[in-house]
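Entry:
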Amino acid sequence: MRGLKYFFGLLSILGIILPYMAFIPWIGENGFNLTMLFNEATQNRISAFAWLDVIISVVVLIGFILYEGKRIGVKYKWIPIIGTLTVGVSFGLPLFLLLREIQMEKMKDK
């Protein structure tokens, strides 16, 4: 199962790097203009579709982190929640799965 931890770790890193490769240049060009960000994110129906999908995914993921994290005793479950809210599901989900895998490995060793 060690390979699964590396897989989730790699996806966590990619989940930060790839979204921010698009976001940081936008911030560089536009600054922290939240009005412009909202306008561009909801510019057309397909953008609105994508953002609504992301919002639902965030809510589901946070619920999963809270429930599953408590159920198996994952430590530091607040980190993937913050990661989800600041980066996105692309970071929060693999990070939580990594922490979950570590906890499950500890439980198995007992």
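The mean pLDDT is 93.
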